[in-house]
Amino acid sequence: MNECYYDKRMDFFYNKTNTDTVDEWTGPKLIVVLCFGTFFCLFIFISNSLVIAAVVKNKRFHFPFYYLLANLAAADFFAGIAYVFLMFNTGPVSKTLTVNRWFLRQGLLDTSLTASLVNLLVIAVERYMSIMRMKIHSNLTKKRVTFLIISIWAIAIFMGAVPTLGWNCLCDITACSSLAPIYSRSYLVFWSILNLVVFFIMVVVYIRIYMYVQRKTNVLSSHTSGSISRRRTPVKLMKTVMTLLGAFVVCWTPGLVVLLLDGLNCTYCGIQNVKRWFLLLALMNSVMNPIIYSYKDDEMWGTMKRMICCSSEDKSQDRRSSRIPSTVLCRSTDTSGHYTEDGIIQGTICGKGDFGDKGNS
């Protein structure tokens, strides 16, 4: 019967797998990595918090698609937490960790990846439901959306905990991987292939949905008199989602391929030399997503700007006299029903008024 090593520290497993953690993460390299990591994590926290707040604040976003988009931002926020924990538990510190703390470190990363992946799958289903009915938004109720969001996180937490629950190599040292010294190579193969297959399926599904939307929009545009902007709204939403999916696949695929090679015990692939850069690339996905939200969705960007400007206005109002009347801001709409900026900020003052007609989407 194989001996189990639950009470060993990580230096035991790193030595067994000949994994070097000291030379790569000391001196100036460690300082640079920590500085960049800290900057990007702060950006992740602030930007994704703004996205979530925008969805809560703007009544135009009170639809299933945007609730799921906010949940994707929450997954990115969680990824920022995982990276912060990783920064303070990596390099030379890795060898001093207990088995449970190392499982927690990796489990947080796996959970964040799974949450983003499953969330994109659910968004694909939501888009399919709405597009098949030729609607901008699906008829999912708030209870169903809440159930979906809870299910996403339940699946993510479970997948992140699978190695801790037993699929590891603590009782079979010969099966340990190089990149993850207490993860079984069979688990890495399963994990990486599963995610890569899901990536491929999602890309195919999204491309088919986008082509269908584009075709239907072109057909209907010649038979309807609605505004051009409204007819193009489904296409714009699909472009946003496809951009998010593309960024997700580009940022995570290299790392998953490296894990797959490690699981296949590829000793001559040089995976130790690229693991840090692919991890940083995965981090960049959580940085890119809020930029994509604001760049692809004018309403999202406008709401975020209003929140930022109103925050600065609130801080300066105590220092300013009441020379500025409350009517300095006015409201106007374009032909598509969306608000446009006129002067400083359009719509309401710091969100105290309505954001627009509830029926418009």
N-to-C series of helices and strands: HHHHHHHHH
**Helix content range:** 55-70%
Tertiary shape: globular
Largest sheet: none
Q: Strand share of the residues?
A: under 5%
- Tell me the number of strands: 0
How far apart are the first and last residues' alpha carbons, in Å?
63 Å
Radius of gyration: 24 Å
Give the integer mean of the pLDDT values. Answer: 78
Low-confidence stretches are 320-361
The total of helices stands at 9
Structural class: mainly alpha
Structural description of this entry:
This protein is an all-alpha fold. 65% of the residues lie in helices and 0% in strands. It contains 9 helices and no strands. The longest helix has 37 residues, at 185-221. It is globular, with a radius of gyration of 24 Å. Mean pLDDT is 78; it is low at 320-361.
Features:
361 residues, mainly alpha, 9 helices
Task: Give a brief description.
The chain has 361 residues and is mainly alpha-helical. Helices cover 65% and strands 0% of the residues. The longest helix is centred in the middle third of the chain and has 37 residues, at 185-221.
